[in-house]
Specification:
Elements lengths: L2 H17 L10 H13 L4 E2 L6 E2 L6 E5 L3 H8 L4 H4 L3 H7 L5 E5 H7 L3 E2 L14 E3 L2 E3 L5 H15 L7 H10 L4 H14 L4 H4 L8
Parallel strand pairs: 5-7
Antiparallel strand pairs: 1-2, 3-4, 6-7
Helix pairs in contact: 3-5, 7-8
GO molecular function: hydrolase activity; nuclease activity
Family: Belongs to the EndA/NucM nuclease family.
Protein name: Deoxyribonuclease-1
Length: 211
């Protein structure tokens, strides 16, 4: 091998981790992942709900698993059909099993936002429970998790080649407004240990500006 080609190969190997976002490769059964890894491991001792910051001790009727990047938009992007049909799609099963995208939410909140997209809404838009603004098919999350939402959406888009579910410039602004706090970093590191890959936008929020 010529020296110049060898140097190029070495450079690629050195910088590749900074250029490629790892995917979830450990889990591909959404139901099992949610039951065993999300509730049985990540939140085995309870926690607080994502949007409302409400403490809970275990999964129950009032608390469920929710997806920051809604699965309805994943199904639309993959064109795999109904939820039942998509359960037979390997790519969908991989994406739906990604713990970086799954958070505990109050069931009534999840029912209202599971098909929504994210947007910075006008101050005249109604503000509902937990400081969530809603208008038509859009929601604006509370200030304290806007960055969490932005970084998770960016991860899902760049990792799985999915369409944006919010305006990029708005999400970039949320990322700057709400940098990762101790809770987000702790959760991220636990997911990384369980699942085996990171969300680079949590580790390096400045990456958002490069999208």
């Amino acid at each position: 091998m010529k020296p110049t080609r060898l140097l190029t190969l070495i450079a690629v190997l050195i910088f590749l981790p900074n250029l490629v976002t790892g995917q979830n490769t450990r889990f591909n059964d959404p139901d099992t992942t949610v039951n065993e890894q999300f509730w049985g491991n990540l939140y085995a001792d309870g926690g607080t709900t994502f949007f409302c910051n409400t403490p809970f001790s275990s999964k129950g009727f009032l608390v469920s698993d929710g997806y920051i990047y809604p699965l309805s938009h994943v199904r639309d992007a993959l064109r795999c059909g109904t939820p039942r049909q998509c359960e037979k799609d390997d790519r969908y099963r991989q994406i739906a099993s990604d713990l970086h995208n799954i958070v505990p939410v109050q069931s009534r909140i999840e029912m209202r936002r599971r098909n929504a997209k994210y947007e910075q809404l006008a101050s005249t838009a109604p503000m509902g429970e937990c400081d969530i603004r809603e208008q038509a098919q859009f929601i604006e999350p509370p200030e304290r998790v806007k960055g969490d939402v932005a970084r998770t959406v960016a991860y899902m888009v760049t990792t799985y080649d999915l369409p944006w579910v919010g305006t990029l410039t708005i999400l970039q602004g949320w990322n700057e407004l709400d940098p990762p706090d101790d809770n987000e970093l702790t959760r991220h590191n636990r997911v990384m240990d369980i699942q085996g890959n990171s969300n680079p936008f949590v580790q390096e929020p400045a990456r958002m500006a490069q999208l």
